[in-house]
Amino acid sequence: MSHPDSGVLAEFRAGIIDGRRGARISAHLATCEHCADLCDSLAEVSVLIGAVPVPVMPDQVVRRLDGVLAAEAARRDISERAGVHSSPGRVAGSSINGAASGSGTNPAGSGSGTNGAGSGRRWNFRLVAMRVLAPAAAAVLLGAGGYGLSQIGATSPTESTAASEPSAAASSVGHGAASSASRAGAIPEIEAPALQVVISSTDYRRTTLRQQLERQLRLPKGDAGPNEPATLSVKACVLRVTKGISPGTLLLVEEAYFQGQPATVIVAVSGHQQIAWVAGDGCSAAEKDLLAMTALSGTSAN
Amino acid sequence: MANTDGEWPSDAELLLRHVAGDSDAFGELFRRHRDRLWAVALRTVCDPEEAADALQDAMVSAFRRAADFRGDSAVTTWLHRIVVNASLDRLRRRAVRPAMSAGDEHALEALVVHDPDPARTADTKLDVDAALRILPPTQRAALVVVDMLGFSVADAAVILGTSPGTVKSRCARARARLLPHVEHLRGNRSASESVSPAQGGDV
Q1: Omega within 30 of 0 (cis) for the link into B9
Q2: Distance from the CA of A243 to the CA of which of A11, A29, A204, B134 falls in 20 to 30 A?
Q3: Which chain A residue lies closest to B181 (C-alpha atoms)?
Q4: Predicted confidence band at B156 (pLDDT cuts at 50, 70, 90)?
Q5: Within a 10 A sphere around the Cβ of B50, how many other Cβ atoms?
Q6: A1 falls within a domain
Q7: B172 with A97: Cβ contact below 8 A
Q8: Helix, strand or coil, per DSSP, at residue A254
């Protein structure tokens, strides 16, 4: 027979060619040194690849992912207490969702009232509750945000006594910012001014983001840079990025730079810490364009 | 099947604790497997910055969807599957809009320089890395999972969301395709007798 090409030999070695064709190749290999060598070479490709050491995750990526997971845990913690779940959202592509053992949608189930009946069921229930509540909660957050810039940090929203169950959360959201805020004990009952944005020329760097932000948050109001009412596009961005975060937890919205590029920096309180997001130019109601995310120690909250 | 070599608590236990509300459990699970998960992402997307993004997408997704895990595979298999999907997803998106992923060169540099790999068998590593880039993403992912990380074909099929037959065939095609590009690496001891890569047909 003619010499099989390396692709066929590779398939033969992988066991996907059998039957008569396989027998023919097998017989050929017994007599053809060239093809037998080729088979050996193919085997060595696997050995060679297997010998490449597994790369160690760079420190920077370790820190980033630790921060992201800490923020996720904090967000879940706070939303569990508030009865509002963070959005599973579009952080991950649809194909990733499909990877979760094939259950793309979460069956709501009718057992929504039976919170104690197994964590899986409770989880699903929370997701359902979130879908209804998240947009309203985010809107409240924006209303309270401007005031929050100077005041909110003093009280952690985890101390909230409100909304240990979703219906309570729903009603508080329904009553608007002031009512929700007073329930949470975090925001006085006043008309919340428009969302203020700090304009600064700070160039945040990926490696020092956390330290820079912690320094920025310690500055007295006004020292961080001039304040301006948020534009519509910044509001949309803040809404998109903070979706699912509890009302009245916004600490800072800053128009600054990240790695030399214009960026919007957003900090909100979540649980015992603060989460910071850095969104790029493309941040809008539809797209987060997240450049970085980190958990801060939350010095002002605790 | 569990890949934890008797570590306690087991991966499954950690995931269970996470679903039950333990805020440290998922982080622990991630710490346990992060280097291998990083390897899959990095080798599949061939770009440290994109790999970090893919891994972040994947871990956030896994964190939030842990309750959907049914236990019909090992937890690591499930985690790898999510990372592979996120990585291939990134590649697809990059292919659609290449101009937009210009990326952050400073961060990229930092990442590249940061790769501490003392046991680095320098040339082999670099050349295999470079060679892997010529493969189509799905073949590359298969080869990384099977030949580089040593998963069984059955587990690789779960990770890649396809049949064992497809895994075998992707790996086979990938090996054949890589052969001419890595042959010089194995040549040290057998260069003199190595044959030229077959072009098919009669030689």
Answers
A1: yes
A2: A204
A3: A45
A4: very high
A5: 21
A6: no
A7: no
A8: strand
Q: Specify the number of domains making up chain A.
A: 2
Q: pTM for the full model?
A: 0.52
Judged by a CB distance cut-off of 8 A, whether residue B26 touches chain A is: yes
Which amino acid, residue B173? R
Distance from C-alpha of A23 to C-alpha of A34, rounded to nearest angstrom: 18
Residue that the structure tokens 């960026």 belong to = A263
Residue A93 to residue B55, Cβ atoms within 8 A: no
ipTM comes to 0.75
User: Which residues from chain B sit within 8 angstroms of residue A243, using beta carbons?
Assistant: none
Angle of helix A6-13 relative to helix B164-190, nearest 10 degrees, comes to 110
Residue B116: other Cβ atoms inside 10 A? 12
Q: Average pLDDT for residues B67-79, to the nearest whole number?
A: 89
> How many angstroms separate the CA atoms of A285 and A88, rounded?
16
C-beta neighbour count of A159 within 10 angstroms: 10
Q: Identify which of B40, B37, B48, B41 has the alpha carbon closest to the alpha carbon of residue B107.
A: B48
Instruction: Kindly provide the residue ranges of all beta strands, DSSP E only, lying in chain A, ordered along the sequence.
Output: 196-204, 227-229, 250-258, 261-270, 273-279, 290-296
- Shortest CA distance to A157 belongs to which of A67, A242, A255, A64? A242
Give me the domain span that covers residue A16. Answer: 6-51
Q: Taking a C-beta distance cutoff of 8 angstroms, is the pair A280, A263 a contact?
A: yes
From chain B residues 149-178, the ones with a CB under 8 A of any chain A CB are 149-150, 161, 165, 168-169, 171-173, 175-178
Smallest Cβ distance to B56: which of A2, A65, A123? A65
Interface touch B124/A48, C-beta < 8 Å: yes
What φ, ψ does residue B172 adopt, rounded to 5°? -60, -45
Sequence-distant (≥ 6) Cβ neighbours of residue A27 within 8 angstroms = none
Here the tokens at position A240 are 């998109």
**pLDDT, tens digit only, all 302 positions of chain A:** 688 989 999 999 998 998 999 999 999 999 999 999 999 888 888 888 888 888 899 999 999 999 999 988 888 877 776 654 444 443 433 344 334 433 333 333 333 333 333 333 333 333 333 333 333 343 334 433 333 333 333 333 333 333 333 333 333 333 333 333 333 333 332 333 467 888 888 899 988 898 899 888 888 767 777 888 777 777 778 877 876 565 567 888 899 999 888 999 988 876 666 788 899 988 877 778 888 888 887 544 33
A177 neighbors A247 (Cβ within 8 angstroms) = yes
Contacts A103 to B, Cβ<8 Å: 68
Q: Cα(B158)–Cα(B79) distance, rounded to whole angstroms?
A: 11
CATH topology of domain B1-99: Rna Polymerase Sigma Factor; Chain: A (1.10.1740)
Percentage of residues of chain B with pLDDT beyond 70: 72
